[in-house]
Specification:
Neuraminidase; alpha+beta; Kelch_1; four-stranded antiparallel sheet; about 30% strand; F-box domain-containing protein; F-box-like_dom_sf
Length: about 575
């Protein structure tokens, strides 16, 4: 009996040892699997993990509970948990429920998330940034540009407030070029020269004609400046010349003023201003014209050629050289001819070099449209009428003086570019044209000149190669019953082949504004009339489609701009039309 008992106990111990070996083997395998799973999860979350949220295994002796947390450096590795040495060697500890490797989550509802966020706030913010960055992965910039370029201008301005990326994307030259060449533009009318409480406010009123909505643009750079002219070139507006008061800055005061020769460029798409090269002479209310020219156009060559063909005059008293000593005149002519011959042997290379240099510069601009801005007439520094002119090249970014008006032309009151010719109408009812490509003036004789009221200056506009003039005509009733004398504004068209004026339309409103402004865009003629009556300033915006047979006028806005404006705004106003 005694000899068999030790054999049974030995068998029992052997079974326990085998069970303990298998149990340790299972624990090692489970730890390796857990470590592998946690490593894969950590790779998916970019290695962002913190303190483990599960309690360690609970062992109890006498009803006690042990709650452990990770205290090692590698929080994500649960195999490095600090455990009791008794649990490793199995010294009497037993699991309360389940197997030894099972864990119990002893956090209450919601505490687990709070505990994780508290100790892993930076990691949580990093995860959010990663998620936000992944939102744009499936929307390339090209697709985003195609979506944004189709937005109306007001929606595009709102979209720029979304984020810095959208703001940068919608202001790049590539995006602006896509919008300029696209078919998603709508006409916008810009009104300048607003005066409030005798001060130049600098506000620009813009009308979205597709939605019939007015918008106000604050232009601090225009505060204090008045009597300037504006012209639109593609999607930009040039502000040329103007005056500002010296004694009372900001007020419309012509008792003591300064005339400017500076030029500014306003881009409505980006709401940005920048200064361009100033004119050679200060001008207020100059007459502007914009024309598209070829890539090999050169203003300096044409102007230099015209200077060489001028009649030489003496510096003393302006007397011609013909009336001086004939012998001295013949000697000077001989020396001049010999000098010209010697100079012709040296200068051609220099002139050809300059021409080739300009041509090479222009060749780099191939594919881009080139425009010139012509400014003539206006009032000078001492408020005197000017008969000179200048031309600005968008490529060279310089102003070049051009030839003055023809003799006895008078004071220019209106002008427009039509088919490469800059037409100017004077207060003395004379018409002249400046050939922009060739660089000289032509006096144009038309028969008959349309009759007009001399207090109202005529306005020239051009629509798709057609030249129109709007003038106020006095209609008499001829004593008939029901008819009375009245003034009407008529539209005349000039036949550029036979130089005859023909009446084509009549403006529906009575001509209450002697300084009405008209501008053309495509087949449309836009007009603005502002006047003060019964102590209130009124405004009327009209439009006419010249492609229609009847050329009927229609109102697009009434009394939306002049609610807070002064009567001096009728004199300082100017207008431009853009497609944005």
């Amino acid at each position: 009996m005694y000899s068999g008992r030790p054999s049974g106990e030995e068998n029992l111990h052997q079974d326990f040892e085998a069970l303990r070996v298998s149990k340790c083997l299972m624990r090692n395998v489970s730890q390796k699997l857990r470590k592998k799973n946690q490593r894969s999860v950590g790779d998916e979350d970019n290695g962002v993990r913190g303190i483990a949220l599960r309690c360690l295994t609970l062992y109890g002796r006498g009803g006690g509970c042990k709650v452990g947390a990770d205290t090692c450096d590698d929080f994500g590795d649960t195999s490095n948990r600090r455990r009791s040495s008794a649990s490793d060697e199995g010294k009497g500890y037993r699991p309360i429920c389940g197997t030894e490797e099972s864990g119990v989550d002893c956090f209450s509802y919601g505490v687990r998330e709070k505990f994780w966020k508290k100790h892993n706030r930076k990691d949580f913010e990093l995860e959010e940034s990663i998620i936000n960055s992944r939102m744009h992965i499936f929307l390339p910039d090209d697709v985003l540009e195609m979506c944004l370029v189709r937005l109306p201008l007001t929606s595009l301005m709102t979209a720029r407030l979304v984020c810095k990326k959208w703001k940068h994307l919608t202001t790049t030259p590539r995006f602006l070029q896509m919008r300029r060449e696209g078919s998603h533009q709508t006409p916008w009318l810009f009104h300048f020269g607003a005066v409030k409480d005798d001060y130049c406010s600098g506000e620009i009123h813009a009308l979205d004609m597709s939605l019939n909505q007015w918008h106000s643009i604050n232009a601090e750079i225009l505060k204090g400046r008045f009597m300037f002219s504006v012209a639109s070139v593609q999607d930009d507006i040039y502000v040329v010349g103007g005056c500002s008061s010296l004694n009372n800055f900001g007020r419309v005061d012509r008792s003591s003023f300064k005339t400017h020769k500076g030029v500014m460029l306003f881009s409505p798409l980006t709401k940005s201003w920048r200064k361009v090269a100033p004119m050679k002479y200060a001008r207020s209310m100059p007459i502007l014209g914009v024309s598209e020219v070829t890539s090999d156009f050169s203003t300096s060559q044409s102007y230099q050629g015209r200077q060489d063909r001028r009649i030489p005059r003496s510096r003393v008293g302006g007397v011609s050289e013909v009336y001086e000593d004939p012998h001295r005149l013949s000697l000077r002519r001989q020396h001049r001819h010999s000098a010209d011959d010697n100079e012709s042997l040296v200068l051609p290379n220099r002139k050809s070099y300059k021409f080739m240099k300009q041509k090479s510069d222009h060749s780099s601009m191939k594919g881009c449209r080139r425009f010139v801005l012509v400014a003539v007439g206006g009032l000078g520094t001492w408020d005197e009428p000017l008969d000179s002119g200048e031309i600005y090249d968008s490529v060279s970014r310089k102003w070049t003086e051009i030839q003055g008006f023809p003799v006895d032309f008078g004071i220019a009151c209106s002008g427009v570019v039509c088919n490469g010719m800059f037409y100017i109408y004077s207060e003395t009812d004379k018409l002249a044209g400046y050939d922009i490509e060739r660089g000289f003036w032509i006096a144009i004789q038309t028969t008959p000149f349309p009759p007009r009221v001399h207090e109202y200056y005529p306005k020239l506009v051009s629509c798709n190669g057609r030249l129109f003039m709007l003038s106020v005509f006095w209609c008499e009733g001829d004593g008939q019953i029901g008819r009375r004398n009245k003034a009407v504004r008529k539209v005349w068209e000039l036949d550029l082949m036979y130089l005859n004026w023909t009446e084509v339309s009549v403006h529906p409103d009575a001509p209450m504004d002697w300084n009405a402004a008209f501008v053309a865009d495509g087949n449309m003629i836009f007009g603005i009339e502002m006047f003060k009556i019964f102590g209130q300033v009124l405004d009327f915006f009209t439009v006419c489609d010249v492609s229609d047979t009847g050329m009927k006028w229609s109102h697009i806005s009434r009394n939306h701009v002049t609610r807070e404006l002064d009567a001096s705004s009728c004199l300082t106003k100017s207008m431009a039309v853009l497609h944005l």
